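Hi everyone, sorry if this is the wrong subforum. Our group has a chain we'd like a structural model of before ordering constructs, and none of us has done structure prediction before. Sequence below.
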Amino acid sequence: MASSQSIELDPPPYPDLATASLFFDFDGTLVDLAQTPDGVVVDDALGNRLSRLSRATNGRVAIVTGRSIAQIDALMGHHAKGLAIAGSHGAERRTSREGHVRPERSAELESAAAELKAFAALEGLLFEAKSLGVTLHYRQCPEREGEAVAMAERVATRFGLHANRGKMMVEVRLPGDKGQAIATLMDNAALHGTTPWFFGDDLTDEDGFVAATELGGAGVLIDPPRATAAAYRLDDVAALREWIDEVLARAEAVAEQRA
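Answer:
Right subforum, don't worry. Here is the predicted structure as tokens:
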């Protein structure tokens, strides 16, 4: 669980990439948030960073996100190839060993989606359809937060689904959380004995921080100080990218010395 009060946390140390496994949330962590989900921009520099990290860790880099894997593929293009991805809060995943593992979209989710889409149109909210869930965004009308959250929770309860809140949004989806996703990925033989690091910004990332800690690693919050289960913190997306660049520089310097 997150700590009960907001405390200032130190930046994360630089891990040994020979023994680390790195897990990253997407929105608000690897890329800046946008007014709409489709407004997110993924540049080649990000893809190149992740590719270099993947090579330096022998493939132990994964994206763990609330977005569907299809959405990540569309946003990242060829840069998504070779990366492990846990999408839809862990309800689906794709790895080189397993391929794409995804449950069927249930009739209950279809019914919930229809109700929430109609509600969004009526209330002036942005409705986002995902492979295994739906999201109501109220970033453009924050005064509708109470109504959006209450409706999502009612619908989720009625159809046996999960409702969870994030930054200016509420989501209804099939069961799963990022902590379970990280634990499942760490079951891969290639990751056994390594130290997991999970980087995230949102309340939906707290389960991931807890899981990384329980597995001997740490969570890193990418956000201003707040109550969190993370052990370390960086201010924003730009700070994380600078941190990754320094990790890569150190690892490549060591490799050159050994060559």
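For your construct planning: Helices lie at 44-56, 69-76, 107-123, 145-159, 178-186, 206-214, 237-258. The radius of gyration is 18 Å.
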